[in-house]
Amino acid sequence: MDLDLRKLRYFATVAEHRHFGRAAEQLYIAQPVLSRQIRSFEEELGCTLLVRTTRSVELTAAGKQLYDEAQQILPSVAAAVQRVRDVDQGAQRLVVAFSPGLHVSDAIRAFTSRHPGVETDVVPARWWEPDRPLRDGRAQVGYLRRSFDESGLRIVPIGHEPKVACMPAAHPLACRQELTSADLDGERMLDVPKRRTSSLEEKFELIASGHGIALVPLSVARSYSRPDLAHLPVTDAPGIETCLAVAADRREKLLRDFVDIATATLRNT
Question: Is the same domain home to 244 and 151?
Fold first, then answer.
């Protein structure tokens, strides 16, 4: 069967809001129409995606899987449509993916000053699969943190950044100037791999609520600074390498120019 992208977008919006009324408002369609479209989509797929009650909407196991797939499919399709339009209009565009907390703006400004006719854009890279925008075509180059699947990619090392322990501001350790890994023995650490679909906002909300401590890159802690959280350097924690990543088979001059400019710019920041 052919996947109906319009219905997939409808489903993804309902899944995001967990509410038909709010989803219908965002989509600018009537709620009964949206409900019929979702039921039709479920019939086409042959599986139940949503469990509806009078107060809430929950995802089934199949619904959760489809929502995860939709996060990749819909942006990838949108990027493909943009590339087609760029070709039709004779436009040049460079899209850069970036990991949370990493700032690529200096490199983009330096590149734009030399290539003013090129349109630039950015897309965020999710922390559990930072290479995804490079593989699904949404971005040509990424400013990322290792480690990730590097197969088929050319990697240019940029630098290192330390990890810090992020904890509630009222935690007994928060008054210290720095920590060692031994100081964290016995503390409840948030297990990142088991919460791979959670956003950073959720992660920091859990920390602030007293659910545990997390080791995060310093730039991430600074980007999500809030008064009820504290972050302290962990002197013996291994640092995280930052890098530029680009598909190994892409050798366009424009892309090479960006990588050269970004390498020089980001290594000096």
Answer: yes
Would residue 79 count as lying in a domain?
no
Tens digits of pLDDT across the chain (269 residues): 678 888 888 999 998 888 888 888 888 899 888 999 999 888 989 999 998 876 778 899 999 999 888 888 888 887 778 778 867 777 788 999 999 999 999 999 999 999 999 999 999 998 888 998 998 888 999 999 998 999 999 999 999 999 999 999 999 999 999 999 999 998 998 865 555 545 788 889 989 999 899 999 999 999 888 999 999 999 999 999 999 999 998 888 999 999 999 999 999 87
How far apart (Å, rounded) are the C-alpha atoms in residues 205 and 211?
9
> Is residue 23 domain-shared with residue 153, that is, in the same domain?
no
113 inside domain: yes
Domain count across the chain: 3
10 Å CB burial of residue 192 (0-12, 13-18, 19+) is middle
**69-90 CB burial, b ≥16 within 10 A, e <16:** ebbbbebbbebeebeeeeeeee
Report residue 191 as tokens.
């297990």
Q: Helix crossing, 105-114 with 253-267: angle to 10°? A: 130
- Model-wide pTM > 0.70: yes
